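Mods, move this if it's the wrong board.
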Amino acid sequence: MAHAGSFLIDAKGTIVGFDGEMEKLTGWNAADVVGRLAGARLLVDGVFDPATANDSAELALFCRDGHVLDVEVSASQGEGEVNRFTVSVLRVVSRAEAGRPATVAGRDPLTGLATRETFLERLGMEMRSASTTGRPLAVVVADVDHLRKVVDTHGRDAASGVLRKLAGVLRAIVRDEDLVARLEDDDFAVILSGLGRGSARQIAARLRSNVERTRFTAIWDADMAFGVTLSLGAASYPTDADNETDLMVRAHEALNEARALGRNRVWCYTRRPRVPLRTPVYLDGSSPLLLGYSQDLSPSGLFVSTEAPIDIGMRCALSFPLPTSQGNVHVIGRVVRTVPRGGMGVEFERFGPQDRHAIEAYLYENESRTLRPEGRAFSV
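Not the wrong board. Structure tokens:
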């Protein structure tokens, strides 16, 4: 199994080895920690017995910048390494400030996350920037599934502990430049700057998976572990909305779809269904090159049948004609999926002048040929 770093420790708790990945993860240089006891909040909390972590265990790592990482680790003892263990970090479970979050303006006192007001202010700024630069922007909203059952079974303090730990799980997945907020009660949201639908879907899926794998404990009994799950909805600019208000509405509509379909899942929004479209698609440029032929079109992207060796994540300038418009429309899209038999799904990230309106007009005129019902979010 791939790991996020490893260190060597002896039976007395002294660090005797520290690899480069651990340096990146914690901010400590090997020279800072090798030869010192791992406990006493230098690296880990309290006394760590690696002999009990053969399968896996949770551990709090103290980073140089003051953050605390809850990580899942395993320990192994190599041949001939008497009383010496290799501790490998399997994954980062959550990330939090050292100690309890301080009560500061714009921060939720329970979780330390941004408040709803701070979130909406930042979203407005990001939307203005995106509309100027043409960069995409995505929002993910999340709701804890059946938190009332946690309250009824384990008490309100346990539910508060779930929300605090969830905040750390969310922070551990997103980038430093992304903003995580607690909107109210058990509702959370994330602003993903410069990312479109495909990236939002991937990050939301990681959030859902990591929360499902995380064990929570009752306040009065650390051995009483239980699990919780998240439902998540995602929407992006410019494919789903033109302003921050509509973007949040679309994300919540996708979240409601996830709830209605059984919870513990990710759902992305699309304003209109895909419609069939058979038209040539070109790699744009001074000398356009035929890439392939589209199969269908939506406000957020199109699927192209092609044999071109284009990888997921690649951004391409594309152009294609529409029966209802003169000349080609021009877009910049990101490849979000490929199929073995020759094809790729492209998510639109930028449009040429008036080209978005041309696509919208074509879809509106061809709604009778749609493949999905109007206004429906779709599964990922």
